[in-house]
Specification:
6-stranded mixed β-sheet, Peptide Methionine Sulfoxide Reductase, Chain A, 6 helices, alpha+beta, Peptide methionine sulfoxide reductase MsrA, 31% helix, EC 1.8.4.11, 214 residues, L-methionine:thioredoxin-disulfide S-oxidoreductase activity
Length: 214
């Protein structure tokens, strides 16, 4: 029993950000999304799904994705930081080649790599900072998201993810970028991030890069 309690404490204390404080500031639902222009043939998509270390690791191993950047989005605070990101959630900017992977597939990856029904968190990371948000930049993306949620609802899921019009993404501090790759022996990465990636890879092996295994 003592060993079990110690293990639980280690996981809690090494969780991504260890942020459990509830944000009480009222959320704002934006009516008009901001569409990020294509750059050098690459497009950008934005997702929040718990710890951004985990999400970064998942998407960077998806075919057609060149990079996943950790940061903050979904709130109203200006210039958020890791220690104070106000009512933003930890989020990721996904840079991808639309000729190799579609936004629809990225949405499929999003839901296949999370606990669809968990409210305000993923796994041991609990709180509004870890809530699930799926962002759209135009009506086509919004429809793709709505179609996926309708399909999941018909399967019996109670989808917890918020659907929001994208406004702005704030890049997180440098030490958060590529965290799983640079810190493979970190206890959080070993106990949370890698198992989460492996569960996802088992569901959608067809989208994983050939070297994307743990």
């Amino acid at each position: 029993m003592k060993l079990l309690m110690y293990t639980l404490l280690v996981l809690i204390n090494t969780a991504c950000g260890n942020e459990t404080k509830e944000i009480t500031q009222q959320e704002i639902t934006y009516a008009t999304p901001v569409e990020v222009p294509t750059q050098d043939g690459m497009e950008r998509a934005y997702f929040a799904s718990g710890c951004f270390w985990c999400v970064e690791e998942i998407y960077e191993n998806v075919q057609g994705v060149s990079e996943s950047i950790s940061g903050y989005s979904g709130g109203t605070m200006q210039n958020p930081t890791y220690r104070n990101h106000g009512n933003h959630a930890e989020a990721n900017e996904i840079i991808y080649d639309p000729n190799k992977v579609s936004f629809k597939t990225l949405v499929d990856v999003y839901f296949a790599s999370q606990n669809i029904e968990q409210v305000n968190g993923q796994g041991p990371d609990i709180g509004k900072a870890y809530r699930s948000i799926i962002f759209y930049q135009n009506d086509e993306q919004k429809q793709i998201i709505q179609n996926k949620i309708e399909a999941l609802t018909k399967e019996g899921y109670k989808v917890a993810a918020e659907v929001k019009a994208f406004q702005k993404f704030w890049v997180a501090e440098d030490y958060h970028q590529d965290y799983a790759r640079l810190h493979p022996n970190n206890s959080y990465i070993q106990n949370i991030s890698i198992p989460r990636f492996n569960r996802f890879a088992a569901k959608m092996p067809e989208v994983i890069k050939k070297n994307g295994s743990h």
